[in-house]
Amino acid sequence: MTATPSPALAGGPGGSGTVAVVATTAEVLAHPAGEAGLLTPGEQARLARIRLPHRRDDVTAARLLLRLCAAHVTARPAHELSPSQHCPTCGRDGHGRPYLPDHPDLGVSLSHADGLVAAAVGPGPVGIDVEPSTRRPAPLRMLARVLPAADLRAATAHPDPGPALLRLWVRREARLKAGRDDLPLLEWTDPHRTATTATTGPSPTRTALATLTALPARDCPPHTPSPGHA
Ligand SMILES: [Zn+2]
C-alpha cells in the first residue's frame, strides 16, 4: 500500500522543506505518539540502560519527535520509520549520526537538553540543536577555540552577552551535526519553553508539535519481534 501523495508545500507533509520542531519532553511524552509503541526493541533496550530517569525521558522524547517529523515529511506512518545511527568517527552502527535507512535522501537530526527536545528532518544534510535559554555556554577561553573570533567579539560586546553566546553555540552545534557550515540557518528563542534553538539545512522551516499528527493507536501496532518490526 502506498501513501496518498500530499501537496508539496515547503515544510508541509510530503513537502521539500526541512521541518524543525522544538518541544518540551513532557509535551512529546503526552502526545499520542508517546504511548504508541513507536520505538524499536533495540531502542527500548538502549533507553533502559540510561539510569537517570529525566535523561531517559529526554532521549525517548527526542526519538519520538524525530519519528513524528519524519512521518510528516515523508507522509508515511510514523511506525514505519525507524532511524538508525552510524558513527563517522569509528565507523560502527548504533550510535552517532542518525539516518533513515529507507530514505537516504533525507537528513535527520535530534537534540535534547534538560527537559527540552528538538528534531529536524529534510532533504540533504540537516542539523538541529536546542539548549535551555538560561544555560550559559562554556568559559570564553574554551569558546575561543571553537567559535570564529569575530563572532565571539560581537557576542561579548553585546549588552547581555550570555544569550548572544548561547545563540552562537547552538548555531555551531547545528552546523556540526549537519556536517556543513554553508547552509541556511534558522534560529529562534521560544520564551514559553525557555528554549534557544538553531537548525540548518537546505530550507529550514519551523513548525509546531501540534501540526505533527500521530497515528491513531489502532493503526500503530506495538513493536514485536516480527519480521516487519524486528
Ligand atoms: Zn563511534
From TrEMBL:
Molecular function in Gene Ontology: holo-[acyl-carrier-protein] synthase activity; magnesium ion binding
Keywords: Transferase
Record's GO cellular component terms: cytosol
Domain named 4'-phosphopantetheinyl transferase: residues: 125-206
UniProt entry tagged with the keyword Transferase: yes
Pfam annotation, one family: ACPS
GO BP: any one term: lysine biosynthetic process via aminoadipic acid
Keyword Transferase included in the entry's annotation: yes
SUPFAM superfamilies, per database record: 4'-phosphopantetheinyl transferase
PANTHER family: L-AMINOADIPATE-SEMIALDEHYDE DEHYDROGENASE-PHOSPHOPANTETHEINYL TRANSFERASE (PTHR12215:SF10), PHOSPHOPANTETHEINE TRANSFERASE (PTHR12215)
Family: Belongs to the P-Pant transferase superfamily. Gsp/Sfp/HetI/AcpT family.
Name used for this protein in its record: 4'-phosphopantetheinyl transferase superfamily protein
Lineage: Bacteria, Bacillati, Actinomycetota, Actinomycetes, Kitasatosporales
